[in-house]
Specification:
Immunoglobulin-like; TIM Barrel; about 500 residues; 5-stranded mixed β-sheet; alpha/beta; 10-stranded mixed β-sheet
C-alpha cells in the first residue's frame, strides 16, 4: 500500500513511503514499475531472479488445496518478500490461508508476481505446496495500487482470459481476488473485459468439474462503496459472473476515525448495497459475501491507526454476522517497529507483539459454539444465528407447517450426526427443515479431514420430525449442490449425499 490522494476510498498495494514521512498530499503517486523505491521480486531471496528454477507452463504448484472454510482469515502476503514468511506465521500462529499480493502485468499483457517473477517461480511453488500440505490454501490477488492489472493491459477478452488461466492453472487455484482501485476502477472497458473473461473461465472450469470463486477487493468509506465500485459489481452481474465475495478495504478514509467502528460501519453499509445489487439473496447470504480488510497499525493517512483492539472489534463483528473473510494489509507489517524507527513497509507503527494481528484475526477461524434453541421468531433468522453455516437453501413448507412461535413448542432436545458429500466436495452448510417451519434453522457443523464429512448438531422441540438440506461444494453464500434427506426423527442421524451429476440419486441423501 502506498500514499495517495486523501479520499474516502482506501487502497491496497505497495507501501512505499515511511509512515513518519510527509503528509499524504505531498507524496508521490507514481506507479512506475522502475521506481527505485519499489520492492521487486528479484530483490528478495526465493522470489525469482536469474538463479530461480522456472517450471514449464503446464506444471502446477502442487495438488489443489482442500479449499476454504465458511469463515477464515487470509492476510495479504507481499510477493516481493520471501515466500518462507507463510510457513513462519503458520508455525507461530496457526494461520494458514493467505492472499498473494499482487499479480500484475510484467509488460505486454503478461501476468507475473509483482510484475517481476514468473508465477511458476520455484520459491512460491514450494511455499504454496507446503501450506496446502498443512491444510491451508492461497488466493492469488490481481491488481493493487501500483503497477497495471492485466485486465487493463490485455486488450481483448481472449488474451485476458489466457493470462488469468495461466495463473490459475500454474498455482492450481480455486479462488482469485481482484483489487481494483484508483484509475483502474474508472476504466469501464477494462472492467467489462475482466468480468466477461472471468465469467467464461467459470463456465469452462465448471464443465471440467472445477469451481472458480471470484472475489472483488474494493475501496470503501464508512458510508459504503462509491458509485464506480457499485457499477463494477452491477456489470459483473450483467456479464454473468458469479461473484463469491466483495472484500472492502477499510482504511485510509481521509479523516481521523475510530478504525474498528469504521470497519463495522462500512461492512453494514456494504450489506445494504449488496442487497440492492443481488436482491434475490437472503440477508445471511449477503453477509457471507463480505470480506473486510483493514491496514494494520498506522495507515497511509497517519491520523488513522488500526490497533490490536480494533482487530478484536472486527473479529467479533465478523463472527456475529458470519462474514466470510477477514484479511489485513499486510503480513510483512505484523510486528512492532524498532525504537526510533518506523519503516511502514516492515512494521505497523503501533504497539504490538510479533504476529499479534495474525493471531487475533485467526480467531475468526475458531471453534464455534452450539446454537441455543430459538426463543422467538427473530432468532430464526440465519443472519443472527450462531451457526457456522450461512447459506440459504430453498425452503419448503410442509402441509401441516405454520408460523407460530417456537415458544409454544415442546422442550428442546439435542439432535446430532454426521453428513458426507460423496463427490469429496466440502460441506458448506446444513439446513434443518422441520415439520413446523418456525422451528427450521441452520445447524451448527464442523468439517472433518478434507471437509467432505462433517459433524452437525442443533436443538429442536422434542419429537419434531425434520429433513436436512446439505450444501456440497461452492461457498456458504452459493451452494454448488443442495442435497436433501427424507423425513427423519430421533436424536442421532447420519447421511451420505450423492452430489455427483449423472447419478440417478443426484442431490439426495440416504441414512449412513
Amino acid at each position: 500500500m502506498r500514499y495517495r490522494t486523501v479520499t474516502a476510498a482506501s487502497v491496497l498495494g505497495v507501501l512505499l513511503l515511511s509512515a513518519c514521512s510527509g503528509s499524504p498530499g505531498s507524496s508521490s503517486h507514481s506507479s512506475d514499475p522502475g521506481s527505485k523505491d519499489k520492492p521487486v521480486a528479484s530483490e528478495a531471496p526465493g522470489v525469482g531472479g536469474k538463479n530461480a528454477l522456472i517450471f514449464s507452463e503446464n506444471q502446477k504448484a502442487a495438488e489443489a488445496g482442500s479449499g476454504f472454510p465458511a469463515r477464515y482469515a487470509a492476510p495479504y502476503v507481499e510477493t516481493w518478500n520471501p515466500p518462507s514468511v507463510m510457513a513462519e506465521v503458520r508455525n507461530a500462529t496457526g494461520l494458514k490461508y493467505f492472499n498473494l499480493a499482487f499479480i500484475i502485468d510484467g509488460g505486454g499483457c503478461n501476468a507475473k508476481f509483482n510484475g517481476q517473477a514468473d508465477v511458476t517461480d520455484s520459491g512460491w511453488i514450494s511455499a504454496i505446496g507446503e501450506d496446502r500440505a498443512a491444510g491451508g490454501d492461497v488466493i492469488a490477488s490481481f491488481g493493487g495500487a501500483s503497477g497495471t492489472e492485466v485486465g487493463v493491459s490485455c486488450t481483448s477478452v481472449d488474451s485476458l482470459k489466457a493470462q488469468y488461466k495461466k495463473v490459475i492453472d500454474a498455482l492450481d487455484l480455486t479462488r482469485v481476488d481482484f483489487d481494483i482501485e484508483g484509475s483502474a476502477l474508472d476504466d469501464q472497458s477494462a472492467n467489462d473485459r475482466r468480468n466477461k473473461a472471468l465469467a467464461e473461465l467459470q463456465r469452462e472450469y465448471v464443465a471440467t468439474g472445477k469451481k472458480l470463486d471470484v472475489n472483488y477487493t474494493l475501496p470503501v468509506a464508512p458510508s459504503g462503496l462509491a458509485g464506480n465500485a457499485q457499477a463494477l459489481l452491477r456489470n459483473a452481474v450483467d456479464d454473468g459472473l458469479d461473484v463469491n465475495m466483495v472484500n472492502i478495504m477499510t482504511m485510509d478514509y481521509g479523516d481521523a476515525e475510530d478504525m474498528g467502528n469504521a470497519a463495522v460501519q462500512a461492512a453494514t453499509a456494504l450489506h445494504d448495497q449488496l442487497k440492492d445489487i443481488w436482491p434475490g439473496k437472503a440477508d445471511a447470504q449477503l453477509w457471507a459475501m463480505e470480506g473486510n480488510t483493514p491496514m494494520i497499525g498506522v495507515n497511509d493517512v497517519q491520523s488513522e491507526v488500526f490497533s490490536t483492539a480494533d482487530a478484536q472489534t472486527l473479529v467479533d463483528f465478523a463472527e456475529s454476522k458470519n462474514i466470510q473473510q477477514i484479511a489485513f494489509w499486510a503480513l510483512g507489517r505484523d510486528r512492532q517497529c524498532d525504537a526510533g524507527g518506523n519503516d511502514s513497509q516492515k512494521c505497523s507503527g503501533t504497539s504490538q507483539s510479533e504476529w499479534q494481528f495474525s493471531r487475533i484475526m485467526n480467531g475468526v477461524n475458531g471453534e464455534l459454539s452450539r446454537p441455543q434453541p430459538p426463543q422467538d421468531a427473530n432468532s430464526l433468522n440465519p443472519s443472527t444465528s450462531a451457526s457456522p453455516s450461512v447459506a440459504a437453501p430453498r425452503q419448503e413448507k410442509s402441509a401441516n407447517s405454520d408460523t407460530s412461535s417456537s415458544q409454544n413448542s415442546p422442550p428442546p432436545t439435542h439432535v446430532a450426526g454426521q453428513v458426507r458429500c460423496e463427490s469429496g466436495h466440502p460441506i458448506v452448510g446444513v439446513w434443518v427443515q422441520t415439520s413446523h417451519s418456525a422451528d427450521s434453522r441452520f445447524a451448527a457443523w464442523r468439517g472433518i479431514g478434507d471437509g467432505s464429512t462433517a459433524d452437525w448438531w442443533t436443538d429442536m422441540p422434542e419429537n419434531e420430525s425434520y429433513s436436512l438440506h446439505i450444501g456440497c461444494g461452492g461457498t456458504p453464500a452459493s451452494w454448488a449442490t443442495e442435497n436433501k434427506t427424507g423425513t427423519n426423527s430421533g436424536t442421532s442421524n447420519s447421511f451420505d449425499c450423492v452430489d455427483i451429476a449423472g447419478d440417478p440419486r443426484y442431490e439426495t441423501c440416504t441414512a449412513a
